[in-house]
Amino acid sequence: MTEGDVMWQRKWVLGNWKMNGRLATIRTLLTELLPQIHDAQQVQLGVAVPTVYLQEVTECLSGSRIWSGAEDVSQFANDGAYTGETSAAMLADVGARFALVGHSERRQYFNEGNAVLRQKYQHCLSERVLPILCIGETLAEREADQDEAVVAQQLAILADLSLDSVVVAYEPVWAIGTGQVATVAQIAAMHAFIYSQILSLCGAGVKIRVLYGGSVNAQNAADILAVAHVDGALVGGASLQPDSFAAIIQAAQTAE
Length: 256
Ligand code: PEP
Hints:
binds phosphoenolpyruvate
């Protein structure tokens, strides 16, 4: 089996730094993290970082097993008059291996919906930047029993794209940055649902990783990563602490 095949059987742990860090703190974070992850040979690793620091992070991580990635990508494919935008081709040019698409903070603050997100997803595919589609319901939607309907609607951007692999991060909005983690039962039910949706949208042969995100930390990671259909974690706050992020990676390394 090739390394390319094996990664679809591993646990994945991706960090999301959001709008945090400075050159000096980033260098310190990575310098402290890298020596702690030598044993984690069975985990697929990455950090999504502010675009302005992407090239620096890519250079710091070269030769390591951690991918650098972007937190967002432009809906526009080609160079042109799009002030402030960063295209998928630019991300690839500075070494990004993946990009988050549709993080709930993008949906909330920038009103990103399926039409724009499908364009972003497709531009990533064209430039061989792996899109990580972020989905998840708000608390009001869960309380109205709409969680599965919302997630199904968010996944619909995957229809008719002839995909052979899909990576999704399920992040209930009410669990992001709040310290409130979904229960094991809630995670298990939603991840099974997401698997079934992806299979029906993309066909039986598609390779799938569904990551959980929302207040994952060093203490709860092992329990979450042991849940059926949880293929890894997308980690926000705890990815800014090298010891915590390393502990989550270690939990993924030993997860069944
Ligand atoms: C995230 O930003 O994707 C996230 C899951 O954040 P946190 O881990 O801080 O809840």
